[in-house]
C-alpha cells in the first residue's frame, strides 16, 4: 500500500497555511473590494481546499476581518492602549495611534476598504460594530468605571469615529490638512469631555520678578 493518494490534491492544513490564505485575501480585498472577492477565488489562488477557509474563518466576513487585522485593526490598536491602564492619557494615545494607522499607506488603504464595506454591507457593519463594542466600548467602560461608564465609553468612541471619518473618509477641510499635533490639540479636550475626564491644566507662566 502506497501513500501516493495522500500527495494528490491541494495544500493541506499546515501551520503556515492560514497565513498564506490571509496574505492572498488581504491582497484581493484591497485590490478588488469586498463584494467582488469570493472564497472560492481565494482558495484557488492560495492553492487550498475551499472547506479549509470555512474551517479557519467560518465565512467571507470572518476572513475579511482577519485579513484586515494583518494590516491595522482599530479594535486591536485601541485595546493595546486600554491595557496600559492609564485613563488620563488614553484619549491622546488612542487618537495618535489611529491617526498613525490611517496615514500609513498600506494600513490606511485597508481601513478605508473596511469602512466602505461596512457602509455597503450590513453584515460587515455588524462585524465592525461587534468588534468595537467588545474590544473598545466594554473594555474602556471597565477601565473608567463609575456611573454611566458604558455611556461615556460609547460617547468617546462616537467622537473618535466621527473625527476619523471626517479627516480620512470625507476629507473635510481644514481638518484633513491639519498636522497630527494640531488635531490632538483641538480634539483631545473633546475626547476627554466625552469620557468624563477633567480638562488638562495648562502649565502656568512664571511671572517676571
From TrEMBL:
<dbReference type="InterPro" id="IPR041678">
    <property type="entry name" value="TetR_C_16"/>
</dbReference>
<feature type="DNA-binding region" description="H-T-H motif">
    <location>
        <begin position="38"/>
        <end position="57"/>
    </location>
</feature>
<dbReference type="InterPro" id="IPR050109">
    <property type="entry name" value="HTH-type_TetR-like_transc_reg"/>
</dbReference>
<dbReference type="Pfam" id="PF00440">
    <property type="entry name" value="TetR_N"/>
</dbReference>
<dbReference type="GO" id="GO:0000976">
    <property type="term" value="F:transcription cis-regulatory region binding"/>
</dbReference>
<keyword id="KW-0238">DNA-binding</keyword>
<dbReference type="InterPro" id="IPR009057">
    <property type="entry name" value="Homeodomain-like_sf"/>
</dbReference>
<dbReference type="GO" id="GO:0003700">
    <property type="term" value="F:DNA-binding transcription factor activity"/>
</dbReference>
<dbReference type="InterPro" id="IPR036271">
    <property type="entry name" value="Tet_transcr_reg_TetR-rel_C_sf"/>
</dbReference>
<protein>
    <recommendedName>
        <fullName>HTH tetR-type domain-containing protein</fullName>
    </recommendedName>
</protein>
<feature type="domain" description="HTH tetR-type">
    <location>
        <begin position="15"/>
        <end position="75"/>
    </location>
</feature>
<dbReference type="Pfam" id="PF17920">
    <property type="entry name" value="TetR_C_16"/>
</dbReference>
<dbReference type="InterPro" id="IPR001647">
    <property type="entry name" value="HTH_TetR"/>
</dbReference>
